[in-house]
Model the fold of this input.
Amino acid sequence: MEPRHDRSSSNSGSSGSSSSRPSRRAFLGAAAAAGALAWVPVFRATAANAQATSSPPTNFPSSIPVYQQAYQNWAGMIVIDDVWTCAPTSATEVVTLANWAYANGYRLRAKGMSHGWSPIVLPAGSTGAGYVLLDTTQDLTAATITAATPATVTAQAGITMDNLTTALAAAGYGLCAIPAPGDITIGGALAINAHGSAIPATGETPLSGQTYGSLSNLILSLTAVVWDSATSQYALKTFQRDDPDIRAFLAHLGRAFLTEVTLQVAASQNIRCQSWVDISAADLFAPPATAGSNSLASYADGAGRIEAIWFPFTDTPWLKVWSIAPTKPALSVKVTSPYNYSFTNSVTTAENEFFDEVATGDTSGTPAFEASAMALVDTALVFTGTWDIWGQWPDVLLYVKPTTVRIVEAGFAVITSRANIQQVVSDFYTQYTTLLDTYSDAGEYPMNGPIEIRVTGLDQTADALVTGAQSPILSSVRPRPDEPGWDVAVWLDMGTLPVTAGFSAFYAQMEAWIWSHYTGSYATVRPEWSKAWACTSTAPWTNTTILGTTIPAAVSAGQASDDGWSTAVTILTGYDPNKVFSNPFLDTLFG
Done:
């Protein structure tokens, strides 16, 4: 029996090279170990341990324990078995480590929860030689909430969103929108200007302290480890939001090391989330000329907070619609903890069998698998009583656990006007399904994960309750001063298992279309930094033209001559001229 939804109750080609994919053994081994693609480091070896595979870093500070540990990113596309790692206990120790690295020819990378795809920590193929990972999650986890105007939270970089949101909610404070997983650190989230899904609903009055843009737009101040030319040493420096240099640190893509941030926060809110599974993709993503009350734009207008999840080769997406609801609606089920969609955070036997087939190169079962995946959503929403839930904001907005399927996602932010939301999603859906059909007609199925579409506001400096607040240069959702009518970002994410043959070739074709289509007075595009972009048929993050030309041009477009990509590069390089906080991929990206 399917849930009955009363809308009136709402407030509203070619296969890629195997080198682009993790090995079958690594992928399936992770799946089998936890039943859901969770992963545990292979070992932890100290400098004195016989298991250590290389000599410890030269002249490493004796007061800081150092050990070898395996590193793996979210989807297992980057796996390094034995990187020297340490866990600084204070910001002062990070400074000590930076000065040691500079003096001894090493580089440092901040390591949080490794919940990301892009190679901003370490790139694929790295052995880890010459690097030390600094695990911020062990000790740099404090948070202090201050009741003032505005209310603020000062948090160390290693605190997870789970712990931060729990503390905020308990104190009566909240955030407008947040990423779905809670197992990410605030430092990692701010490095890539992580986001949720929210624009103002029709008639909604924003709360003081809110932003509908990314989390980076909430920053009032931050402390980073930077080069001090006067002493020729690294030191701590605190940047206020009105400091022009903060522009490059608000979203720095791993080219800096933040130890602490102060964010403004708003009052806590109760949220309702309704799931719709009976709206056809043809209606939800219809062209504007034929779109009706079931269009994605209509839901965005009515509630302001939406996410569409569509599995390839199925007819009806899973649409989540969040709305502000101070008191519990009669039909809603109250929830008091997050991660309520348990069926999305585990892997079934049938799914594991499909993963095994894909890993061996057989993707023919993709259409049937997608149909079963959506059928599971349909059934489980009813079975678990979660098709209409209500509770405090983090209990409703957090829903992705580490035990979910580890897919790779390509992601892009399309900056446009609110009036163009439906056109953006309709064009994307048409192109995506057309390309899917081209591949399937040839017997190829490179995409076996869902597309996810969300809509946010932009990083408007007026949201920051600071006079003279600076704009984050590298934010994917930075406004275009020359296009004041562009006020939203439509986030387009395309998921698939990372062992799937041909996925990067598919990504490359879709990416080329995205860059070329959303242009002119219609829209502009920027990468979603944590995801896959700059794709070739071989692998993501390898298209040198996109890395060296397209992305810098997209970041700079419409900005003042001293407020674009090159300015961010100059600022970050000036505060780390020795590239202690960099890696080969970032060296290429930033030039």
About this structure: Residues 421-441 form the longest helix (21 residues). DSSP finds 14 helices and 20 strands in the chain. The longest strand covers residues 219-228.
